[in-house]
Amino acid sequence: MKKLALILTLLASCSAWAQGDAEAGKAKAATCAACHGADGNGIMAQYPKIAGQHQGYLEKQLKDFKLAMSTGGAQGRNDPVMGGMAMPLTEQDMADLAAFYASLPISDNTTAESSIELGQALYRFGDAERGVTACTACHGPRGNGTSLSGFPKISGQNGEYVKLQLEKFRDGQRGNDMNAMMRAVAAKLTDDEITALSQYVGGLH
Fold first, then answer.
1. Which residues does the UniProt record annotate as the domain Cytochrome c (predicted)?
2. Cβ–Cβ under 8 Å, residues 188 and 132
């Protein structure tokens, strides 16, 4: 019983420590607005919309950006701009910023008509012959992901940003995906398939 009580106490303390304060995050987000906008929806298509993203996912990305900087790129997620932004952040700062942006609504987006057929087929069913897993398996039928599993919300995301990330996963420039799942899928996608998927998820609801 004593061991169980200790474990429960530790879990409770970890949960309390991990809690982010959205109001505190809002006060810390001034520099983030330069690229992500005051509402977290990005000021240019190559920047991600972080409004409405799962808090845990946002927090993990910030930690990974900082980790890459502190390990010379050996670990984490390499990005010179975001790495520099994340370096001075404390874990509480990261939790607060993640809580703030998770509380904001993501803006509407659309899917290009030309990308619906191919994008939808790959998203829903993948390609069994080539070993391409359907996106819906992790990101869900509406692209909302799952917070507990760490899969991000991609519905409504900027298509250009999604395209850049899929290309980075395919080329091995980004390697902070769980069990290399995104790298395994992206490695089998053609340029046309990446374009179709990136545009398709933008209007997925």
1. 20-105, 114-205
2. yes
Confirm if 137 and 182 have CB atoms less than 8 A apart.
no
Average of per-residue pLDDT across 81-101: 98
| DSSP E strands, 98-167 | none
* Residue 127 main-chain phi, psi, to 5 deg: -145, 95
Distance CA 134, CA 136 (A): 5
Q: Give the model confidence (pLDDT) of 124-143 as tens digits.
A: 999 999 999 999 999 999 99
Q: Of 48, 129, 55, 116, which is closest to residue 82 (Cα–Cα)? A: 48
Contacts of 39 (CB under 8 A, 6+ apart): 51, 104, 105, 107
Which element (helix H / strand E) includes 42?
none
Tens digit of pLDDT for each residue in 102-122?
999 999 999 999 999 999 999
Residue 186: closest CA among 201, 172, 200, 199: 172
User: What one-character DSSP code corresponds to residue 165?
Assistant: H
Q: What is the spatial distance between Cα 182 and Cα 42, in angstroms, rounded to a whole number?
A: 23
Cα separation, 183 vs 166, whole angstroms: 8
